[in-house]
Amino acid sequence: MPAPIRLRELIRTIRTARTQAEEREMIQKECAAIRSSFREEDNTYRCRNVAKLLYMHMLGYPAHFGQLECLKLIASQKFTDKRIGYLGAMLLLDERQDVHLLMTNCIKNDLNHSTQYVQGLALCTLGCMGSSEMCRDLAGEVEKLLKTSNSYLRKKAALCAVHVIRKVPELMEMFLPATKNLLSEKNHGVLHTSVVLLTEMCERSPDMLLHFRKLVPQLVRILKNLIMSGYSPEHDVSGISDPFLQVRILRLLRILGRSDDDSSEAMNDILAQVATNTETSKNVGNAILYETVLTIMDIKSESGLRVLAINILGRFLLNNDKNIRYVALTSLLKTVQTDHNAVQRHRSTIVDCLKDLDVSIKRRAMELSFALVNGNNIRGMMKELLYFLDSCDPEFKADCASGVFLAAEKYAPSKRWHIDTIMRVLTTAGSYVRDDSVPNLIQLITNSVEMHAYTVQRLYKALLDDISQQPLVQVSSWCIGEYGDLLVSGQCEEEEPIQVTEDEVLDVLEGLLVSNLSAPVTRGYSLTAIMKLSTRFSSVNRIKKVVSIYGSSIDVELQQRAVEYNALFKKYDHMRPALLERMPIMEKTASNGPTEIVQTNGETEPSVPDTKHLPLVTQPANQANDLLDLLGGNDVVPVIQTTLPTKPASAGGELLDLLGDLSLSGGPAPAPSVPVSKPPFLLDGLSSQPLFNDISAAIPPMTAYSKNGLKIEFTFERANPNPNIAVITIHATNTTEADMTEFVFQAAVPKTFQLQLLSPSSNIVPALNQGSVTQVIRVLNPQKQQLRMRVKLTYTHKGSPVQDLAEVNNFPPQSWQ
């Protein structure tokens, strides 16, 4: 058989291929020749064939059939064979293939070889692809080489130990004695790999971190020697002595100094020296300065040192290299919360980055600019950010508009400025704003009573200029519907009023209804605005005509609105002025859940019963409905929470008419304007008879829940005259030393039952069993089935919210039979 071609000739041949198909043909032909050579056990050219196979593997072609040949080369006594064999093993094998276990014995023998270069090959291979089993078997040999005096082997053994620790963390302590003398080594390669090993051990074990903190002075001394040492051609990179080792030491110092005052104090001076003495004209120096800044920011450093670090980042912002500018912006964004004033000094430079051509830098600069906004610079920063919003790419507009909204809401110097700013955003980027921007702006306008005339005039002008921005059109339509009379009367004091007639206003709104640019939601806003103007304008007949036209619209939403508005004109015309009066002022109130809008009428005080001394009901509808899925499927009925009692319990049927008067949220239902027939439910018609039987004592009490000091007991009674109704009274007690506040008990039962949950006696369970919270549950069980119940408990204990679910299935038979 002729000798196979050399690797260099194969590379030259493959490079002459003009098409992918021609290259594949060459590769397949050569692979066939290599396979034949492998089958013939050709030892002479095995090394050359595996080398060619590795080149094909690098090109992306399959080379797995050469795995066993790599093992044969490793077992060879020739160094050239071993070198290619180990290289092939690192490229073609990994721990997912069982073949790699066959080379464990060869690696062990080579680790004890008399030639250091063979030992180095074995260490490299184990450190590259050794599995956890191999690492366990060979860790002893690696630890032995870590203690040798040969620098060449020690640096490779240190890196191999890093891989062993990653694979088998429990072997970490084996290498602890060997690490003691590593930092005293003069060889920079050994120092570098030693720092890598120490870093890995500190990151993986808190105990190791505490142990190695005593090495901080030694690390500081090594770093100082690197800075102060003269020119060394062996380690010099662009005039800086061994920057790779400096960076590694800085990273290790960052880990050792984190959350430790003594270690941080020991490294403050050297960090200041590195920050002030490092040359910044070359990228090498910038890399060291960046690591220094990260270390300063991560440890408990002095305030002056932190300012120095931020000033370094500020200089990075002026660098011509876009990567350095991006790194500086990202780092400043992380530190702006802790060192706000220091970052503020570089505000003008950060704002200039908004004009950068690189999109990544622009995005980071935008995020940092919003983080710098405060009450003192809101006007200037918003001016720059609104200018950026005008000219930025579409992918930035949504985030920028959202940021402007949040900043304006938090720091607005006046309501007029707030309204003008949001209108500017809607005018320039209305199509990109969040969904909640429309209701938020409407609420802001509603609450700014003195700005109504100014706002409606500005929005009307904006509507005449552009109707393509749908959020702007929706807000404008709403405002014109609410305050159209102010627009027509020309009562604006903030700027020169415009002369507008009623017909011109209606023309604009009708134009929105027929415009192709208007979304269905926008048309709904416009139709409602026209309807509202029927009580503010005198053109009622024209409005009637417009509304009647849309009673046959193909848009179901628009059609329903028009039909209902038509009914207002005809059947309920006497109620129309009251229904279409201006919206009352809306106030945002903080709550545990999403923000609620509480409406109050400024003219008359609503009559609200005094609830100051009544028990608090804290079971909103969403919490009650969360229990719907507790028992699975559609088999569950919701909790029905009663309102605060305003009549004594003897009222019987009125109190217990659940379907007529109660909602899932526990709020009082509005009084119906016309009589409504109410179906009987649970305990209707009991007002003339005592509520409970005298046989209640026959049903034994039970403990339904006992956990974390909270105990829930159930006692039972029978309702009279309906024996199908079980009345359960819960008694909640607290054995801990702190009160349980905001206590809420909820329950759910299968659909074959009906459940009514009355108001609790309190929402605070006193500590140390000094009192209890009681609550009554009524369960209708017409089919006499075994009672099952899921309960949900929420409360706050020692400042922390607690929530728990439990299933109660062990009800006494007397309670449901």
From TrEMBL:
Keyword hit for Membrane: yes
Location(s) in or outside the cell: Cytoplasmic vesicle membrane; Endomembrane system; Golgi apparatus
Keywords associated with the record: Cytoplasmic vesicle, Golgi apparatus, Membrane, Protein transport, Transport
Signal peptide: none
GO CC terms of this entry: AP-1 adaptor complex
Matching Gene3D superfamilies: 2.60.40.1230, Leucine-rich Repeat Variant (1.25.10.10)
Residue stretches making up the GAE domain: 697-812
SUPFAM superfamilies according to UniProt: ARM repeat, Clathrin adaptor appendage domain
GO biological process, one term: vesicle-mediated transport
Membrane topology qualifier: Peripheral membrane protein
InterPro entries referenced in this protein's UniProt entry, alphabetically: Adaptor_Complx_Large_Subunit, AP1_complex_gsu, ARM-like, ARM-type_fold, Clathrin/coatomer_adapt-like_N, Clathrin_a/b/g-adaptin_app_Ig, Clathrin_app_Ig-like_sf, GAE_dom
Pfam families per the UniProt record, alphabetical: Adaptin_N, Alpha_adaptinC2
Predominant location: membrane
Family: Belongs to the adaptor complexes large subunit family.
Designated name of the protein: AP-1 complex subunit gamma
Lineage: Eukaryota, Metazoa, Chordata, Craniata, Vertebrata
